[in-house]
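pasting for the record
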Amino acid sequence: MAIIWELDFYSRPLLDDNQKKVWEILLIQSPTNVTDDPATLFKFSKFCSNQSVNSLWLGEAIHEACTLASVRPQKIRFFRRAMRNMIAKACSDQGIEPLPSRRTFALNNWLQEREDNFYPQQPGYTSPGPRTGVRYPETDPNLLPEAVRGDRGDKWLYAALSAADLQEMPEWEIDFGEGFPVSLAALGEDTPIPGLIYYSRRALPLAAWMSGLELCGLSLQLNVPPNLVLDTGIEERWVVASLSSKDLVSETKTFMSAIAKSKGLHFLAIQESPEDEKFAGFWLLRRES
């Protein structure tokens, strides 16, 4: 699997001697397996003055991080839409593919840790107030491409695995997918992890198509008609299932409550049939609060 980093480049709750916001680049390796140890992930941070915020400085910082890492990344994920052009140019200038993505789970944890423990200890700290996170517009979801769209033979159901069960993910036969260590969510081994299992005769092409997306999480859209939606990239959304009855809406609300109880951790599995012993696709997902 390709080496992927996660990047944030933005102002921090710090002021310099001229009372200008201090900026910072954060880079951390994406854990892509449940067995990855978050403590051993490559990390890089560097402050930037307000006057030096541009793609040139950012590209030089990425280059510096690459010289310090044991393995150079092929891709870099980033979640801030406002910085999209600058980050994309800096990555491309370094020969690295930029990936607009909300799948920055390790980075989100690191940012929270720094906001709680690191920045308050630095000179020029100014309280940022309650952390609200980055909000994304809830755009209308797209239909899945016709080539992978389900037919009347497709079925789906909600299920649950324990955090301990997910530790066995490397032993499962999976054609396409990605995981991350459950410890990022600080859950006990017996915690139920909710998920959606989707059965389709087009399981393999559907999973292959999804592997080209940056899968973030599942959500409930209560428009008319209500839908179960898959959020990908920075703002893309896809209809996974139409909720054609009040019972299905109620069941999905219960599913979303279960996701909240597991600190946003959930999964999406794709199989050809319930009798299939392998997965065409399996992804761990996480909805950020």
